[in-house]
């Protein structure tokens, strides 16, 4: 086996079971250890010399990478969380590490050093609040990692609050910033359409009512000249079509939502979200 491939496939950390399933034999594994191609982390687990340090540390501590840390490796949009590195243990190590990520129900077996998306979401459901969990699920749906039916099936035995959160998910959400704004606006009783299509302009992240076109920036604000120009061309073209464009940044959603929403609410009170001229203070 070309053990360098393990870095790409498994983050450089594999179990004996994975090696055997890949076609290696017990003598092959022993020779690989003797030659230094792989190193034993603990019983049943090996690493290549350039293995990911976070994965190695988790396995050495009788755990596997899970929850947000695993989902980040799968390319999902991850909300901020006070815990930097997320790992979890199997039922055999549960008493030894009570402070690790946990799921609702019995722990899941760990066939790999990094959990798959479905398993990682099971553990994220307890680590994150409802908004954070929906952001993760939206990202999984948007990137085609799972379907809504998959989520419903995977969480069919979860608490009602988790099952209700799944029903708020939307695969069209392109970023966590968009998901958070959508959830907060809908919880305020506003009618919100996700990825509304404006002729000649393209897709609007969120449309409140008939006219209020909200565009969301993710963590990295569009600073490149082409992005700057494109965003302003979009806003310019939306106005003649009858839309009222409003662009929100990551910081305005996650750091200053109270004042951000106050401006949105003021626009709604004056009827600027309606498909006609502002009409007094009617909601």
TrEMBL record:
InterPro entries named among the record's database cross-references:
AbiEi_N, Restrct_endonuc-II-like
Q: Mention any Pfam family matching this sequence.
A: AbiEi_4
Residue ranges of the AbiEi antitoxin N-terminal domain?
Answer: 2-49
Q: What is this protein called?
A: AbiEi antitoxin N-terminal domain-containing protein
Natural source organism: Gordonia namibiensis NBRC 108229
């Amino acid at each position: 086996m070309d053990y360098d491939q393990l870095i790409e496939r498994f983050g450089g950390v594999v179990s004996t079971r994975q090696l055997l399933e890949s076609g290696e034999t017990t003598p092959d594994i022993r020779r690989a250890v003797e030659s230094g191609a792989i190193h034993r982390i603990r019983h049943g687990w090996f690493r290549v010399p350039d293995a990911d340090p976070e994965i190695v540390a988790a396995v050495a501590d009788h755990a596997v990478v899970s929850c947000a840390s695993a989902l980040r490796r799968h390319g999902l949009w991850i909300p901020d969380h006070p815990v930097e590195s997320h790992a979890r243990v199997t039922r055999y190590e549960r008493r030894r590490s009570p402070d690790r990520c946990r799921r609702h129900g019995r722990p899941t077996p760990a066939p790999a050093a990094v959990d798959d998306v479905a398993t990682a979401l099971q553990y994220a459901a307890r680590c994150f609040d409802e908004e954070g969990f929906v952001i993760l699920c939206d990202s999984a749906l948007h990137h085609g990692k799972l379907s809504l039916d998959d989520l419903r099936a995977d969480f069919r035995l979860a608490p009602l609050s988790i099952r209700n959160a799944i029903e708020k998910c939307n695969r069209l959400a392109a970023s966590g910033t968009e998901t958070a704004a959508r959830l907060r606006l809908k919880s305020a009783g506003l009618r919100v359409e996700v990825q509304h299509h404006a002729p000649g302009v393209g897709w609007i992240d969120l449309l409140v009512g008939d006219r209020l076109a909200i565009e969301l920036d993710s963590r990295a604000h569009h600073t490149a000249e082409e992005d700057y120009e494109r965003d302003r061309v979009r806003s310019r073209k939306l106005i003649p079509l009858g839309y009222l464009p409003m662009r929100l940044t990551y910081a305005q959603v996650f750091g200053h939502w109270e004042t951000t929403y106050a401006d949105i609410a003021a626009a709604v009170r004056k009827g600027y979200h309606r498909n006609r001229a502002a009409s007094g203070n009617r909601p």
